[in-house]
Amino acid sequence: MSVSRTDRKKTVPTHSAGVRPLLLEAAGLTLSGLVAEPPGGGSRATVVAVHGGGMRAGYFDGQAHPGLSLLALGARLGFTVLALDRPGYGRSAAQVPAGLTLGEQAVVLPAALDAFAERHDVGAGFLMLAHSYGGKLALTTAAHCPGLLLALDVSGLGHRYAVESAGLSRIRPHVHWERTWGPLDLYPPGTFRAAQALVSPMPSREASEVALWPGMFDELAPRVGVPLRLTFAEHEAWWLHEEPHIADLTARLERAPLVRVERQPGAGHNISLGRAARSYHLRALAFFEERLAGLMATVP
Predict the structure, then answer these.
(1) At what angle do helices 133-144 and 213-220 cross, to 10 degrees?
(2) For residue 1, what pLDDT is reported?
(3) Which of 63, 109, 139, 251 has the fewest CB atoms within 10 Å of its CB?
């Protein structure tokens, strides 16, 4: 990875103002994460942010530019935002160094949300915003736990890889990096220095399921019954997302009451760390606003 002189010199804060670390005990694991709550209290709802493979919760609190942080933005708009390190990342890595399968993570995540709700105001309930591998966990959780989520927003995830599944483990590091980030000018100065604190090895049990996702999606999709928004970056290179692929993907989500597919201009796979982060986060939060408004309309 080449790093610009500006990237090397920029001092990177730990967290955005109002964002603090937390620990949650869930299903025998200690999960680390970050949380931001509305300054005046009275959360409207709780946005649960779920990171992708090889990253950590700080992905949603980008420090290279003040406008990147989902946590800070969501809190200013009245949401509690909870970003968790998935099992095998952060604090839990010492307990499960090989990580957990998606099915096992989908047991831990609801337990973590229950633990969080015991001590925090979650407002109307849980909305989930997930990226890449985190989107796999979000869809798995939605399929296994009907009623847990009010709505789901996923970026950087499709159902068919743009490379042969069998060859995913053999992709050379520089090619993997290019597919994950895309053009460098999509990211503000300081991004790659800041990202050093976010990058974490993908646990082996998680990695072993990467190639299985197309079949897993086909099994899970008919059971997902939550309003869903999917975003593909302009420079998304991991997934097939031309119109025929999108049509096939959405047709499989037959129980979802709403499936919306959008494109994010000027973005690579790691949308929430790029210059387009604020635009994407605002669109996702607007989708959540619509879902909350719909819930209020059904209340007598």
Answers:
(1) 30
(2) 37
(3) 251
